[in-house]
Amino acid sequence: MPSTFFAWCIEQSIDFSNFLYQVQLTIAKGDYGGIIFRENYANTIFYHFYIGQDGSYNLFLYQDIKGQQGELLQSGHSSAINTGLNQTNLIAVLASGNNLYLYINKQFVTNISDGTSRSGLIGVIALPNNNPTEVVASNAQVWKL
Questions:
Q1: I need a surface site. Which of 2, 81, 95, 100 has the fewest CB within 10 A?
Q2: First and final CA of the chain: distance in angstroms?
Q3: What is the pLDDT of residues 92-105, one digit of tens each?
Q4: Are 6 and 127 in contact (CB under 8 A)?
Q5: Can you tell me the distance from the alpha carbon of 38 to that of 27, in angstroms, rounded to the nearest whole number?
Q6: SS3 37
Q7: What is the pLDDT confidence band of residue 2, given thresholds at 50, 70 and 90?
Q8: Burial label, 141 (beta-carbon count in 10 A; 0-12, 13-18, 19+)
Q9: DSSP class of residue 87?
Q10: Which segment of 17-31, 57-71, 121-135 scores lowest on mean pLDDT?
Q11: Closest Cα to residue 96, out of 144, 142, 63, 60?
Q12: Domains and CATH numbers, the chain
């Protein structure tokens, strides 16, 4: 997969606004894996929160469905991330109104207030940087608030 593209899988039948969404991710090969939320295809808006096997995390807002106009909202490194390949991490977002709270392995990482997208679909994502990437997502759970 070229480094300028990502692959995602979206749950297409339920629109969520206020929720807690968590997924276990294992980066089997490559660079980054994460979740997509409040994805609104009609308005070409979505957020994605992803972690790297290097211990990094990022939260982006995209306002075009091709993912070419991403705005970095938060980034950093977290000791909560199990680094390296084939390590399982539980990542989660709690979305309530404009407030987004991010968690890694049940540890609070950061929060932000952004009301660009207030509802939408959820899913998972794999992102390469310089390497072909394979991410295993399992035990996805979502609770409406």
A1: 2
A2: 37
A3: 999 999 999 999 99
A4: yes
A5: 23
A6: strand
A7: very low
A8: exposed
A9: -
A10: 57-71
A11: 144
A12: 7-144 (2.60.120.560)
Helix or strand run (H / E) with residue 27 = strand 19-29
Q: What span, in angstroms and rounded, lies between the C-alpha atoms of 16 and 144?
A: 7
Q: How confident is the model at residue 1 (pLDDT cuts 50, 70, 90)?
A: very low
The rounded distance, in Å, linking the Cα atoms of 78 and 57 is: 7
State residue 7's pLDDT score: 74
Residue 71: name the closest of 83, 63, 80 by CA.
63
Which residues, listed in sequence order, are joined to residue 36 by a DSSP beta bridge? 48, 123
Could you tell me which of 1, 62, 4, 54 has the C-alpha nearest to residue 32?
A: 54
